[in-house]
Amino acid sequence: MNYGADGLVPLDKWLGYWHDGSKEADERMKAGFREKKARANTRKVGMPAEGGTPARRREGTPHRLTTTMPPVHHGLSHPPFHIWAFDGNAFTGILRGSNIMTEHRMSIRIAVIGAGLMGADHAAIVAEDMPGATLQLVCDMNADRARAVADNLGATDVTTDPEAAITRDDVDAVIIASPDFTHAPLSMASIRAGKRVLCEKPLSQSPQECIEVMQAEEAAGTKHVMLGFMRRYDQSYVEMKEAVTSGQLGRALMMHNFHRNVETPAADFTGAMAITNSAPHEFDVARHVLGCEFTAISAYQPRRSDSVVAPVVMVLETDDGQLVTIEVNNNAAYGYDVRAELVGEQGSIAMNNLAYTRTDMKLAATTRYEADWRGRYHEAYVRQNRDFLRFVETGAFPATAADCWDGYCAAQVAQTGVRALETGQKCVVEKIARPGFYA
After folding, report:
1. Among positive and negative, which fits the CA dihedral 250, 402, 274, 260?
2. What is the value of pTM for the model shown?
3. What end-to-end distance do the CA atoms of the chain give, in Å?
4. Beta pairing partners, 95
5. Which residues contact 177 (CB under 8 A, 6 or more apart)?
6. Do 241 and 293 touch, CB atoms closer than 8 A?
7. Ramachandran region, residue 50 (left: φ > 0; alpha: ψ -120 to 50; beta: rest)
8. SS3 letters for 325-374?
């Protein structure tokens, strides 16, 4: 669906004129419905998706013209939009509002930037697990890779130019899953274009660059960037946070976390990279579960017998007097394994390893580990992306989601953690004051 310069939905496909919210337009709408009454038994209920098959109405059931304004498009304020229900004899009502959505909604057209592992997974979720969304465009610097993902999932188009993708008129929202160093610049481009964006973590490894994105978002006057800290949507952490907020465990005292991978993604992976690349998930989800900020961090490494990077163990202090421990072991060898335990004064709650089956053979019981994070957190990604879709549709930032402030906090804690590892000393986490925009 194309939109007019004033942001109104062109109803000429239905009634042959623009509806501008005026009384005269209401009367024209009534007349248009009456003209179509002769086809009452076989009339459409709403507008089908491009190339779709119109639904058919049974005798005596109401007609509804069901469309929506552009989804909080570019932060514009739209005039009231009138939608009538007609039962073949009389108009039964009218709905008013700047973002009307009824039983058939227009699809949100999403561009996915990055067609590697994460980008392909996000594209698949958009295409297969997000009712109300269309995979409009796949963008990657490798045109063949973009085309392969697009063809596999039925995307409309491909491009190698991410900034052009963001500004296209046929793109309503953006998912950024390109290399880390592109996240902040492409988020800024999305803000300038007035497009909501789901950006994979990190927003940036540079706290200063995160601040610049926050400043751009605040200048725009509304939140545009939802950050991909998907663990907030994982059921285990959801239940841990509920245990804290309900007071079930009494006062929360400690949260223990470990994050283990089969092996490092590159031979030159370092302990500092474990802190800046792997640990931010733990930094964010611990802040989220406990509802706290970190004030200090210590970091240590044991010595391995070989040349690969050893585990990093961190101890963090919170502004509410709690302790958080985080182990990141990028060469655990046995599988992908993430666990957490929250300890309170009255008890504790711990994450279970997810295994759908157990094999019993030769006097032993065995379960399997995932090879990486994608299977373990697939459901969390789906929940997150559906929340992003609601954000695009309504403009209301999701209560569970991470924003640019959360991205800044993760980057600042990581940067301080690297300094603690290098110096062997506990380091104070120094942050800017939280802007009122993110309060």
Report:
1. positive
2. 0.76
3. 36
4. 83
5. 112, 113, 114, 116, 118, 119, 121, 122, 200
6. no
7. beta
8. EEEEECCCCCCEEEEEEEEECCCEEECCCCCCCCEEECCEEECCCECCHH
Strand pairing of 294-300 and 312-318?
antiparallel
What is d(CA 54, CA 32) in angstroms, rounded to the nearest whole number? 19
Q: What angle do CA 111, 198, 161 make, to 5 degrees?
A: 35
- Judge residue 436's burial from the number of C-beta atoms within 10 Å of its C-beta, 0-12 exposed, 13-18 middle, 19 or more buried: exposed
- The pair of three-digit structure tokens given for residue 53, joined into one six-digit string: 């098959």
75 Cβ contact list (under 8 Å, min separation 6): 194, 220, 221, 222, 395
**What does the block give as tokens for 146?**
């973009």
Strand partners, 135: 110
Please give the single-letter amino acid code of residue 270. T
Q: Which of 119, 176, 175 is nearest to 150 (CA)?
A: 119
Residue 196: predicted pLDDT: 98
Helix (H, G, I), strand (E, B), or coil: what is residue 268?
coil
At 93, the amino acid letter reads G
pLDDT in tens, 149-177: 999 999 999 999 999 999 999 999 999 99
Helix (H, G, I), strand (E, B) or coil at 180: helix
Count of CA atoms in the C-beta half-sphere (13 A) of 197: 32
What integer pLDDT is reported at residue 106 of this predicted model?
A: 75
Is residue 7 classed exposed, middle or buried when 0-12, 13-18 and 19+ CB atoms within 10 A define those classes?
middle
The token pair that represents 96 in the structure block = 């008013």
Instruction: Please tell me the least confidently modeled range out of 39-53, 229-243, 257-271.
Output: 39-53
Cβ proximity of 176 and 198 under 8 Å: yes
Q: Report the distance separating Cα 401 and Cα 387, nearest Å.
A: 8
Q: Residues 341-352: pLDDT tens digits? A: 999 999 999 999
Structure tokens at 325: 């421990």
Q: Of 92, 81, 75, 74, which is closest to residue 33 (Cα–Cα)?
A: 92
Peptide bond into 48 cis (omega under 30): no
Q: Distance between CA atoms of 141 and 178, rounded to whole angstroms? A: 9
Phi, psi (deg, nearest 5) at residue 194: 75, 25
Angle between the N-to-C axes of helices 117-129 and 143-153, in degrees from 0 to 180, rounded to the nearest 10: 20
Helix spans in 40-161 (H)? 117-129, 143-153
